[in-house]
Amino acid sequence: MKKSLISLSLAAAAAVSALPCAAFALGAQDALNVIAGNQYVAAHDLQKQYGYWTAKAVSNDGQRATVLVKDADSSFTAVRKSDIGAALPSVEQVAQHLRASGYAYVYDLELDDGFWQAKARQNLQSEKTEFVLHPQTLEVLSRVGRSGGVANNQTVLGADQVQIALQQAGYSRVRGIEFDDGFWEAEATNSANQPVELRVDPTTGRVVSEQLDD
Questions:
Q1: For 66-89, what is each residue's pLDDT tens digit?
Q2: In three state form, how does the secondary structure of the chain look?
Q3: Mean pLDDT of 19-32
Q4: Topology at the third CATH level for domain 157-212
């Protein structure tokens, strides 16, 4: 049975409550209303990331897309991989955009979950920086390396700062710190001497989830 818009919005609101971002201008139901108003139905997998509500949906003519609703102003974008090079920039255009910003080496560039994502280095000796860009305008929504960065207009802690925050929170043997899907992730040992996997708020260093490391 398909979930109703109301049940979707309640599930989405619970799912996004832990995400590291500023207070939402739009609620989950508001985002669903914008999606429906743009002639897309069967919205699911609603979540908040990089200042946008995103969901999978189907247009009235049956085309599947990832849809984005900007939290700040309700602007709507439908993203289909078939539009790359037409309504959306080509892979090479995105790479050129990053090179023009001073990153000579651009790799692992793909359109994923509605956003352009890429890794880049200014030179062979510089640190790896992970980018998330708007699929159409190429606005940089997230730029994070091991020394930190910016995501959703908020300062992101560096890996060393995350390690210190975890140690101050009582974790030991902190290792494997990596930035992934908008969060810092790490392996550590908790106060009960159990090996755990951690997900950490990138702006505060607060642990948002802890799971036993099998």
A1: 999 999 999 999 999 999 999 999
A2: CCCCHHHHHHHHHHHHCCCCCCCCCCCHHHHHHHHHHCCEEEEEEEEEECCEEEEEEEECCCCEEEEEEECCCCCEEEECHHHECCCECCHHHHHHHHHHCCCCEEEEEEEECCEEEEEEECCCCCCCEEEEECCCCCCEEEEEECCEEEECCEEECCHHHHHHHHHHCCCEEEEEEEEECCEEEEEEECCCCCEEEEEECCCCCCEEEEEECC
A3: 75
A4: Nuclear Transport Factor 2; Chain: A, (3.10.450)
